[in-house]
Amino acid sequence: MAHIGFIGLGHMGGPMAANLIRAGHSVAGYDLSESLLQAAAKLGIRACSSAADTTKGAEFIITMLPTGKHLLNVYREAGILEAAAPGTLMIDSSTIDIESARNAHALAKEAGLASLDAPVSGGVGGATAGTLTFMTGGAIETFERAQPILEAMGKRIIRCGDAGAGQAAKLCNNMILGISMIGVCEAFVLAEKLGLDPQALYDVASTSSGQCWSLTSYCPVPGPVPASPANHEYKPGFGVNLMLKDLTLAQSAAQQSGASTPLGAQAQQLYHLFAAAGHGGDDFSGIIHLLRGLT
Ligand code: NAD
């Protein structure tokens, strides 16, 4: 059993912390939201009155926050790096820009603490079921120390490289997802115009070279994949605003590194238009409405 501090008990952090409790760890949690803290306390998490309070006796501190700014604020201003005992391992699972991730590693190092960037894939469903994929960046020995803790929340734990490599993998993966979803949506919109039954397109493409996760796990039209958000009025799932955030991070990483990502840029633009039309809270597969010209 390990003592773990958990900061950020939102849609993802709440169920992740609950899985740590289920695995027999002791968890001290903090969130700015009082109602989330109360919900966490009902699950056996010690509700703390500040981020620094979660560090008491903790061997691991996990953060699951909205952006790099939030993470650096917590690292710089909440006093957790000063409060953490020597040897504490800082794990950040938020999806953030690579520069902030590297800055967070540097701050932890300055404070004499080990650190790992460990963003996740799998959404709220994966967080609840404990089947997340963790993509991590940091030293090998740090990765090995974190592995048993991450295994309580995920099914696949991958070391991608040194500091920031986990965030790099996350941004690249989600750029594929954002682009591929638009590709799949375009095919269904064209099929509609051609009078082709969507189920027929699904049956062909899901067993042909058009096969991809956006089609077979998350089909953007109702019918072929009953669990996909298209069957539930495009309730997320994975929201447009989160996809837009990840594509924006990918674009800024592409600009900084000099990578050419024209389809990533176009996908970012389309999700931006869709969000601006009032659909930021919809599931990202709802972008099919924009492509049909219906927003
Ligand atoms: P969320 O907004 O539900 O949760 C973030 C929580 O952080 C909130 O409850 C907020 O109150 C808390 N918070 C903010 N500042 C804080 C502070 N200073 N101290 C303590 N708590 C603070 O977001 P989420 O959906 O749980 O996502 C968290 C991260 O995971 C994001 O970076 C997101 O991009 C990433 N992510 C989300 C999903 C998803 O499907 N929701 C999937 C993969 C990755």
UniProtKB/TrEMBL annotation:
Entry EC number(s): 1.1.1.31
Gene3D superfamilies, per the entry: N-(1-d-carboxylethyl)-l-norvaline Dehydrogenase, domain 2, NAD(P)-binding Rossmann-like Domain
3-hydroxyisobutyrate dehydrogenase-like NAD-binding domain mapped to chain residues: 164-291
BP GO terms, sorted: L-valine catabolic process
InterPro entries, per the entry: 3-OH-isobutyrate_DH-rel_CS (IPR002204), 6-PGluconate_DH-like_C_sf (IPR008927), 6PGD_dom2 (IPR013328), 6PGDH_NADP-bd (IPR006115), HIBADH (IPR011548), HIBADH-like_NADP-bd (IPR029154), HIBADH-related (IPR015815), NAD(P)-bd_dom_sf (IPR036291)
Entry superkingdom: Bacteria
Functional pathway: Amino-acid degradation; L-valine degradation
Reactions listed under catalytic activity: 3-hydroxy-2-methylpropanoate + NAD(+) = 2-methyl-3-oxopropanoate + NADH + H(+)
Active site: residue positions: 170
Pfam families assigned to the protein according to its UniProt record, in alphabetical order: NAD_binding_11 (PF14833), NAD_binding_2 (PF03446)
Enzyme class: oxidoreductase
Domain 6-phosphogluconate dehydrogenase NADP-binding: 4-160
Transmembrane residue ranges: none
Keywords: Branched-chain amino acid catabolism, NAD, Oxidoreductase
Family in the record: Belongs to the HIBADH-related family.
Protein name from the UniProt record: 3-hydroxyisobutyrate dehydrogenase
UniProt organism field: Beijerinckia indica subsp. indica (strain ATCC 9039 / DSM 1715 / NCIMB 8712)
